[in-house]
UniProtKB/TrEMBL annotation:
Beta-lactamase-related domain: residues covered: 39-305
Source organism of the structure: Paenibacillus rhizosphaerae
UniProt lineage: Bacteria, Bacillati, Bacillota, Bacilli, Bacillales
The protein's name: CubicO group peptidase (Beta-lactamase class C family)
Pfam families membership: Beta-lactamase (PF00144)
Length: 480
């Protein structure tokens, strides 16, 4: 069945051949293995069989996709090729004559758009390292200066810098960013509202990461690919491109049980069981299962990405029947109750020590630390607290936290822009205050313990749930 509307239709799982018990089993496995999912939406035959959000995450909130953005970049390139703006055989160096190294190696000269798409550029490592080290904001020049050790097309290396180059090439040809180019061609026809995409210092969308959309938007994208690029009677993406982009273009391992070793297409991973996917760091997924006529969209804050897919293959995929199943009211009621109860709870308020009033509003100067924090204070009120945090450069963050409940706000504490937050606090012991802040448009959740050694001396222990670097910072000491 083809979905033709802007809003995905809803149905009961049994009507789509999925027993509700299988979805409960999936949720049980997620919980039992400590996987922090933020949302899921399971489609079959163009309809939503089940969906859920772990509060405080919510349907209307966009979520950072990280590398799942790459599949959208691939789509833009496919459309540009279809419109005659690009060819997959176009050489990368031709688009950047002013940014080339003094000596262009034969391998760099041979690199084309197809090689960028298939992660077969010939680089021995991801060029984002070189890009991160560049100081002039010219990411393309940094990419082109990186060594190309292998003949392009012969060697797979996951290369986010290559996807950025696709974005830069598209913008150089069209004069539009990826976001602008896809607006009328993809986002508006699918009813994807207010997508955002991060940019490099020169105003080029980052391509390999940086897109933020909702869970249902991810599901629509997967459904579009399942429908061979057709939506609402219109062929939005050429069918031939869908087939090529989602087929194996290069080997990336020996198969086995890893879903990162089944082959790679044009910014789509091959999966076991005849499926394919786009995915992003910390558990962002768009899994397309053609044989089952199914799509699964997931957002998360977890490092257990293979375990999430194992739960899909073990619990959901084998349970999908060819025909509708008899309605099981009891299981359906249990499933709906389970979905309604999904939540990531705030810190539980239990005690309110005398120390609270003594330290309320007191400012603590912090010793030099990796977080670049210079000063902190906590002001307590009846049902909330406000953290005043200062960086060494003088920037001030005021963070309201609910007492044993989530308190909504916005912050740019760990992001380059203001993003939605929920925060809570509780005393975990008479001398230790725990702070919990969730950045609910991202995978990130930070926790800070403030241990009051005396009323005038503190030790801060700071950690983050997922990170490309360390998850814990060294203890930070401070004095009033």
């Amino acid at each position: 069945m083809e979905n033709t509307s802007l809003q995905l239709p809803r149905s009961r799982p049994e009507a789509l051949g999925i027993p509700g018990a299988a979805i409960l089993d999936f949720l049980d496995e997620v919980q039992a293995n400590g996987m922090e999912l933020h949302s899921f939406m399971l489609l079959r035959r163009g309809q939503v069989a089940a969906e859920g959000w772990w509060g405080p995450y919510a349907p209307e909130l966009p979520h950072m996709l990280f590398s799942l953005s790459k599949s959208f970049t691939s789509t833009a390139i496919g459309l540009a090729v279809h419109e005659g703006l690009l060819s997959l055989e176009d050489k990368v160096v031709a688009f950047f004559p002013d940014d080339l190294p003094e000596e262009v190696s034969p391998n760099l000269a041979a690199m084309n758009i197809r090689h960028l798409l298939m992660m077969g550029t010939g680089n021995d490592q991801d060029t984002m390292g070189a890009i991160d080290r560049c100081t002039d904001g010219n990411w393309a020049k940094a990419f082109l200066a990186a060594p190309v050790e292998h003949t392009p097309g012969t060697h797979f290396v996951y290369n986010t810098g290559a996807t950025y180059m696709l974005s830069a090439i598209l913008q150089s040809v069209t004069g539009q960013t990826l976001l602008q180019f896809l607006q009328k061609r993809l986002f508006e026809p699918l009813g994807i509202h207010n997508p955002t995409w991060e940019s490099c210092p020169r105003g080029i969308n980052t391509g390999g990461f940086g897109l933020s959309i909702t869970t249902e938007d991810i599901a629509k994208f997967g459904q579009l690919y399942l429908q061979h690029g057709k939506w609402n009677g219109v062929q939005l993406i050429p069918e031939a491109w869908v087939k090529e982009a989602t087929s194996k273009q290069i080997s990336n391992g020996d198969g086995g049980e890893s879903d990162w070793a089944q082959g790679y297409g044009y910014q789509f991973w091959q999966c076991r069981h005849g499926a394919y996917r786009g995915d992003g760091a910390f558990g962002q997924f768009c899994i397309v299962m053609p044989e089952q006529e199914a799509v699964l969209a997931v957002t998360s804050g977890t490092n257990q990405m293979q375990e999430v897919m194992n739960a899909v293959w073990g619990r959901l995929l084998p349970a999908m029947a060819g025909e509708a199943l008899p309605l099981d009211e009891e299981t359906q009621n249990r499933l709906q109750e389970r979905i309604r109860s999904l939540q990531l709870a705030p810190l539980a308020h239990s005690i309110r020590p005398e120390l609270e009033s003594a330290v309320s509003g007191k400012s603590y100067v912090l010793d030099d630390n990796d977080m670049n924090w210079s000063r902190i204070s906590v002001r307590f009120e009846a049902d909330q607290a406000v953290i005043d945090l200062y960086e060494t450069g003088g920037k001030h963050f005021a963070l309201p936290l609910g007492r044993g409940k989530w308190l909504e706000g916005t912050s740019d504490l760990i992001m380059p822009r203001q993003t939605s937050t929920v925060s809570s606090f509780a005393w975990k012991s008479p001398d230790t205050l725990e702070l919990s802040i969730r950045f609910i448009e991202t995978p990130f959740h930070i926790t800070t313990d403030i241990r009051f050694e005396t009323e005038d001396a503190v030790v801060l222990d700071h950690r983050i749930n997922v990170s490309f670097g360390p998850n814990e910072a060294p203890p930070i000491t401070g004095k009033a």
